[in-house]
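Morning F.,

Quick status update on the modeling queue. The single chain you submitted on Monday has been processed. Sequence for confirmation:
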Amino acid sequence: MTLMAHRDSLTSLVDVTIGARFLRRLPAFLRHQISPDHARATLLHRLERREADFLTNARRAVYEQPGSPYLQLLQLAGCEYGDLERLAPRTTASGKILHLHLERHPAPKTASPLKR
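Structure tokens below.
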């Protein structure tokens, strides 16, 4: 068996396992109904916590993980954790990073950045 065939068979096994777990849990999930009021309250609570949850996830998954590729990208953009805290209430995650990058690296004054 080639390395690629072995990798594909492992991937297939993982996919089958995930699918079986999903199908096993689906009936219980479908039996649990929530009211529109409960769904609305849950949604509002999550929206209220959106910025705080984003910052918590960014700190744990990116800034506290030295090997994170996202940390490397944010460092290249000059985006520190405090910058995200400052921008969190204003924009989406990608908007925060773009805003910070543009703030620190303004567009060139000439029509073409390659002109001298």
